[in-house]
Amino acid sequence: MKWKDKSVLVTGGAGFIGSCLSKELVNLGCDVCVADNFFRGRIENIKPILDKIKLFEVDLTKQESCLDVTKDIDYVFHLAASVGGIHYINKQYVEGGTPSILMNTNMIEAAAINNIERFLFTSSACVYCQSDMNLNKFKEEYAYPANPTTTYGWAKICGEVLCKAYHSEYGMKTCSMRIFNAYGENENIDPRSSHVIPSLIRKAVLYPKEGFKMFGDGEQVRAFMYVKDCVKGLILGMEKNVNGEAINLGSEELISIKDLAEKIVDISGKDIKIGYDLSGPRGTNKYCADTTKLKEVFGWCPDTPLDEGLRNTYDYINGELK
């Protein structure tokens, strides 16, 4: 598949994953367009490529905006969503669902109207529902019949259904990639809405000015995927998975949150006492992606060691907080 000189739109392209993807697309020789409303995205994230991209500051909940940004575009990576950390997605707020549902609907319809060649939708592990207290290793088929616990998860289900429908009815080359626990450079470090790794690293960097406390007892188990691998998976998704299907994109390198915190403390080199907030949200107990389908379709799976990714992310956040 050809990338050089292709016109590629990244919605949410100033956000965490979107900005890293946009940089890689520039490296591949694409003519990159970024659409973002800068609610969570930051101009700093795309500053190194600002002179090499076309930037739209738009509201993608509006149909006319989606039609404008998809004109003369070959491929669309639709990452824009109303999202935050566990505090955000665990609350059944209207903003967890409605803006994303509007954006998903408007973007894929605009892509169809403007004859986009390929459309990739970033879904999430939040489409799944915990089945027991042991390890939940989610296979793609486990998402249906749908029963996510958050409006954010329902918005992702709606996006997947649209991808499947537009492929089936109009022959559009679409796909959905279900991202599991991505982390890395350019991630949000606002304590009110950050995910677990940037949240813990932020606390380590600022310790002892701020305390180091995690939600729950630390026994929750996750598999984290470095953003470099996430970007590679999205690009492979655009190349190889265009039949409307959803594929998990995640690591199988499991770790408890307690052990994760200890790794971050070790990287910091500080003598940090880890505290536990048993009243805070803890999320699904133990889960990761089943990557069988990913390996079969792509011949690849995320392979950056957690220790390497954590060190890179710590250095980035340490620099941001100086």
Attribute tags:
10 helices, Rossmann fold, seven-stranded parallel sheet, UDP-galactose 4-epimerase, domain 1, alpha/beta, single chain, 322 residues
Note the topology:
Blueprint: E1 7-11, H1 16-27, E2 31-36, E3 53-57, H2 63-69, E4 75-78, H3 86-89, H4 98-113, E5 118-124, E6 136-138, H5 151-170, E7 173-179, E8 182-183, H6 196-206, E9 213-215, E10 221-223, E11 225-226, H7 227-240, E12 243-249, E13 254-256, H8 257-268, E14 275-277, E15 287-289, H9 292-298, H10 306-321
Would you kindly provide a written description of the structure presented here, covering whatever features stand out?
- This protein is an alpha/beta fold and 322 residues long.
- The protein has two domains: 7-183 and 224-253 and 288-304, NAD(P)-binding Rossmann-like Domain (Rossmann fold), CATH 3.40.50.720; 196-221 and 254-287 and 310-321, UDP-galactose 4-epimerase, domain 1, CATH 3.90.25.10.
- 37% of the residues lie in helices and 20% in strands.
- It has ten helices and 15 strands.
- It has a seven-stranded parallel sheet with strand order 3-2-1-4-5-7-12, with helices on both faces. It has a two-stranded parallel ribbon with strand order 6-15. Strands 8-11 form a two-stranded parallel sheet.
- It starts with 6 loop residues before the first strand and ends with a helix.
- The model has no long low-confidence stretch (mean pLDDT 94).
